[in-house]
Amino acid sequence: MKTSARNQFQATVRAVHDGAVNSEVILDLQAGGKLVAIVTKESARALGLSPGQRVLALVKASWPILVVGPLPKTSARNHLAGTVKSVVTGAVETEVVVQVAGGPELVVMITKGSEKDLALKVGDAVGVLIKASHVILAVD
Question: I want to staple 37 with a disulfide (CB 3.0 to 4.6 A). Which of 24, 66, 92, 135 is the partner?
Answer without folding.
Answer: 135
